[in-house]
Design brief:
By secondary structure, the protein is an all-alpha fold. It folds into two domains: 231 residues, no CATH class; 199 residues, no CATH class. The chain is built from 16 helices and no strands. The chain starts with 13 loop residues before the first helix and ends with a helix.
Length: 453
């Protein structure tokens, strides 16, 4: 088992180490944004029917993404602790078992997906030519599900081993590949025929195929953590139970979040379509603004996990403090920039005055609480590593459904649109504070549990 490298994140300067881990993931996060926007951009040039068709696929793709992300979170949380404890047998076993679970999920999704394309999307309201376009797109996309599931789990495993450069690079290369292939396969260039919406699906599958092959090669040849020999059914089931114990609650709460977003959109719709459009633009800007925080969140799990596994609790406490501090400091910088340049940024996307005013209002109210949102995300990641996935899911549920939505309804009635956006800020502040307290308490409980063993 000596081929598997020992823990990399249990020594060194913590502030510098967290920055070095985070920066490569920023590239990957931006690559993910580019990947998701590319299909929309090029299909929009084909026509509104093709764009509508791809829009109908978003809920289904989101559900599959959410479930896969949950499995990845479970795998990363478990393996990072095994790495810290130098339990290389368990690292190899869990990595292999998680990928096996991913293959089984893939087979189920492909089978069900292909059999239900027309009835499912008809139920969602698609019909006529749009339903035909969906059939063309999803009949190819479903076969590429393995290219979605395996890299998401595989990249999580690589991060848990202490390497964020390769996952970031993989995501970046995938995005570039999709940007190159999309126009070639959609519109047809050189010997390539114009495939329209089928071309977009094929480009997605090919681009993600690169991430799949790269992730598997890194895990098998460099990290040597994949082994299908001596698989015992009982140990396999136990491994899956541990992964799913963390994975399922996270998957469910990820699926629930769009419901909350839908309710807010419905609430804003009463103020007119321009307000909804402005909200949509503001959330896209927000995604870019929070890239650092999202990247930081993705590396906190492996860092905390490895140090917990090594029982280096002082590094865990300092890592939590530094992570929260980075979140707060970065959000202050972002908030100041957005406050100053909100109108200029909004005008890049649209010159409609009502749309731009909504963008400005959202960014100036919400951005100053991004740091607390970061603490919420970091804290829920750490709770998953502590094997408390229901605590993590409960905090996100509280922020969205017990704080944000009720306060948004009240705020809307009292002061209008500003009340809805203020409700989001208040929910971040309260849930961020609550998360900090919950994580500190859970860490203390975990230390006691370890000391009693």
């Amino acid at each position: 088992m000596k081929n598997i490298r020992n823990a990399k994140l249990t020594t060194g300067n913590i502030p510098i180490q967290l920055l070095k881990l985070t920066l490569p993931m920023i590239v990957g996060m931006l690559g993910l944004v580019v990947f998701n926007l590319t299909d929309t951009y090029f299909l929009g040039q084909l026509g509104s029917d093709q764009l509508a068709a791809i829009s109908f696929t978003f809920p289904v793709v989101l559900i599959i993404n959410s479930f896969t992300k949950g499995i990845g979170i479970g795998t990363t949380s478990i393996i990072s602790k095994y790495v810290g404890a130098n339990e290389h047998d368990k690292v190899k076993r869990t990595a292999t078992d998680s990928l096996t679970l991913g293959l089984i999920i893939t087979a189920i999704v492909i089978l069900i997906g292909l059999l239900t394309i027309k009835p499912l999307f008809s139920l969602l309201g698609a019909k006529g030519i749009i339903l035909n376009y969906i059939q063309e797109y999803m009949s190819i996309w479903y076969f590429g599900v393995i290219m979605l599931v395996i890299p998401m789990i595989g990249n999580g495993i690589i991060r848990s081993l202490g390497d964020t450069k390769v996952p970031g690079l993989i995501m970046g290369i995938s995005a570039i590949t999709n940007v190159i292939l999309d126009p070639i396969l959609i519109f047809g260039y050189g010997p390539a025929p114009a495939l329209g919406i089928k071309g977009a699906a094929l480009a997605t599958v090919f681009a993600r195929g690169i991430t799949t092959i790269t992730a598997i090669m890194v895990l098998h040849f460099r990290e040597k953590v994949i082994s299908f020999s001596k698989i015992k059914v009982q140990s396999l089931i136990k491994s899956w139970e541990k992964i799913l114990y963390i994975g399922i609650p996270n998957s469910l709460i990820q699926m629930a979040l769009p419901i909350g977003s839908g309710i807010i959109t419905r609430l804003l719709a009463s103020y007119g379509t321009d307000v909804v459009a402005g909200y949509g633009v503001a959330t896209k800007i927000e995604f870019f603004a929070l890239t650092f925080t999202m990247a930081l969140t993705s590396v906190m799990g492996p860092f905390i996990g490895q140090n917990l596994g090594s029982k280096l609790f002082k590094r865990v406490d300092e890592g939590l403090k530094i992570g929260e501090l980075y979140s707060l400091l970065s959000s202050i910088l972002i908030a100041v920039l957005l406050f100053i340049f909100a109108r200029s940024i909004g005008l890049i996307f649209n010159n409609n005055l009502a749309v731009v005013n909504t963008v400005v209002l959202y960014l100036r109210i919400v951005s100053f609480t991004y740091g607390l949102q970061g603490i919420l995300k970091i804290g829920t990641t750490i709770l998953n590593v502590l094997n408390r996935p229901f605590h993590a899911s409960a905090l996100i549920f509280i922020q969205t459904f017990l704080l944000y939505l009720p306060l948004a309804i009240i705020g809307s009635r009292l002061i209008g649109i500003a009340g809805i956006f203020s409700a989001l800020s208040i929910s971040y502040i309260l849930s961020g504070i609550l998360t900090h307290i919950a994580v500190k308490r859970s860490l203390n409980e975990y230390k006691l549990e370890i000391n009693m063993e």
